[in-house]
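User: Show me a protein chain along with its predicted structure.
Assistant: Here is one chain, sequence first, then structure tokens.
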Amino acid sequence: MTGTKTADLPEEAQQFLLGVYERAKARLETVIQRHGLRPGLSAAMAQERIAILDHEMAPVFPALEQAGTRVACAKGCGVCCTLTIDVTPDETFALVDYLERTQPAETVAAIKARAAAADARGHGLEPLARHRLRIACPVQDPQTMACLGHAARPTPCQGYLSLDLGRCEAVHDGVGRDVPQPTAANMLTNVVSHTRSYAFEDAGAPRQSLELTAALLAAWADPDAERRWLAGEAVLPTAASYQAETEES
């Protein structure tokens, strides 16, 4: 069901998703107008985007419970944290900002070291090949398996909900292919993600797709990147996602 298209949904469901889009658009555009196109906007937009998606997805969980299906995700699980995550520049800047504001210097240094090691192993690999190497996200705490950037996590991380831990583990171990996920959650995630991208694009920031680990390294190496991106410049070229690279070749 995860591949269901909006056009295939009943009219009532389509109207609901349109309402999600309009609510998200209004809130995100307000953040841009209030903050302006200056550094720090990415962090403000991430905070609002996470709040929007949390609010819109809230009814999904009791509905699943009522249907006898539970979300298998839990703090400290981290089985999915070897998946390749495609992010946008603003999600990268927001995560860097959050880590540097909330984590001790030695923890940030350790994250940077893990990012460098992970990128050295997996840079440029297609997602499945990279996943088979079981390269953990550098933002994941190796001891607790918790996400150290959870409050500023990218949209793919926030919207990924599994209904079967065993299937997650099978995929992680390379013996499974699909993880069942709630269709409603996927659609809500897509709506909010695209709305956020449109808001930035309308404001003049170019749309880009980046691989998370490489993007973090590139952002740390280029502290002025957010300002230039908001001014309309494509940034972090070494972090282009695998999909973007194949489309350009």
